[in-house]
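Journal club prep — side note

Before the paper discussion, L.F. wants everyone to see what a predicted structure for a comparable chain looks like in token form. Sequence:
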Amino acid sequence: MAEDLARLDELFVKHLRLFSKRPLPFGLEVHAGWTDLLDTLLSRIETILDDIPDASFEILQVKEKFGTLRFYYQIDNASDTATAAIRQAVEATAAASSFCCERCGASGQLDSKNGWMRVRCRTCDDD
């Protein structure tokens, strides 16, 4: 479990530009299996923002809801094109999370267990 938290915490260091405004009140409210998805998303956002020095970007919350990734943010002083590109990247990542085990990152399936939606691979499904 500590290793899982360490993987998520590495994102704060690796993507300091996106997390520099303030720490997230609840941290990253997801399991470590989505670390690679988040890393790819954050890298994409940084690439988009590299061309917009005046843009202001703030991550508000990162969590799981109804079994898939939710990424809430605020962007200001960016072009419509950049805003749309970020929105598209966030939506694509959320869609990809429905096929990625939230625990280990392996290929998984969105399902319901005891009324809770989640994405798990066959190995982690036994938990």
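L.F.'s comment for the group: The chain has four helices and five strands. Keep this in mind when we get to the figures.
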